[in-house]
Amino acid sequence: MKQICTIARNVLPGLMAAKAKKELEFVTPEDWAVMKPSTPCGQLPVLELADGTFLAQSQAIAYFLAREWNLEPTGSVEKAKDDMIFEMGTEINLALIKAHYTDAKNRAANYKTFYEVCPSKLEVVEKLLPDGADGATIGQLHIVAQLIQMEDAHTDKTWFLALLGPKTKALYDAANALYARQNPWWNPADE
Ligand SMILES: N[C@@H](CCC(=O)N[C@@H](CS)C(=O)NCC(=O)O)C(=O)O
Asked: Which residues make Cβ contacts (< 8 Å) with residue 158, sequence separation at least 6?
């Protein structure tokens, strides 16, 4: 499978591939303007399957990969609990995007808001994570993806580490180490 994407939206599928020990080729389109009209949603990322099918929407792609690679818990309630963790990742992601991908004039103010909301979201994550969480599920990996992006986007790289509870910190250490080892293509400086 081939993921055609922007750098930031590589992080979750990159983590998933690393955890599942699967091959996923990451490609940055050289001519997006030409490709765009023939993609399902006219947006990146897209995932190209072996048979030439294209899937779009980062969350749909992530859930597809989770089913293919067995990165969902067993049982309806356990899945729902992991989805709750996934959604906390989405909330953190939206706050981070608002702070980081903004014009220079508003960035400081938007980061201030991010600093204010992020600690309480990470507290909830700590409560929701099961004991021994090590990144075996899509929801857990979505949290790690946000932490990786925060570490690289944020000017004070130790700020968020001090906010992590023990379960979140153990999850981050386990999954982040695996990802860094298996994905040398990822260079946050490109973002
Ligand atoms: N809801 C979509 C949002 C995708 C999105 O915003 N993609 C942006 C880049 S991050 C894009 O394709 N921009 C280029 C364009 O629209 O031509 C998802 O989660 O995949």
From this structure: none
6 lines ligand 1 (CB under 6 A): yes
Residue 121 near residue 68 (C-beta atoms within 8 A): no
pTM: 0.90
Nearest CA to ligand 1 atom 15: 43
With a CB cutoff of 8 Å and minimum separation 6, the contacts of 81 are 73, 128, 130, 139
Query: What domains can be seen in the chain, in order of their start residue?
Result: 2-70+183-190 (3.40.30.10), 76-179 (1.20.1050)
Give the 3-state DSSP-derived string for 101-162, with helices as H, strands as E and coil as C. CCCHHHHHHHHHHHHHHHHHHHHHHHHHCCCCCCCCCHHHHHHHHHHHHHHHHCCCCCCCHH
Which residues are 54's β-sheet partners?
48
Rounded CA gap, 20 and 116, in Å?
Answer: 35
pLDDT digits 0-9 by tens, 98-121: 887 788 888 888 888 888 999 999
Which pLDDT value is given to residue 191? 45
Q: Would you say the CB of residue 182 lies under 6 angstroms from ligand 1?
A: no
Q: Whose CA is nearest to atom 16 of ligand 1?
A: 43
Structure tokens, 184: 């040398």
DSSP strand pairing (25-27 vs 2-4): parallel
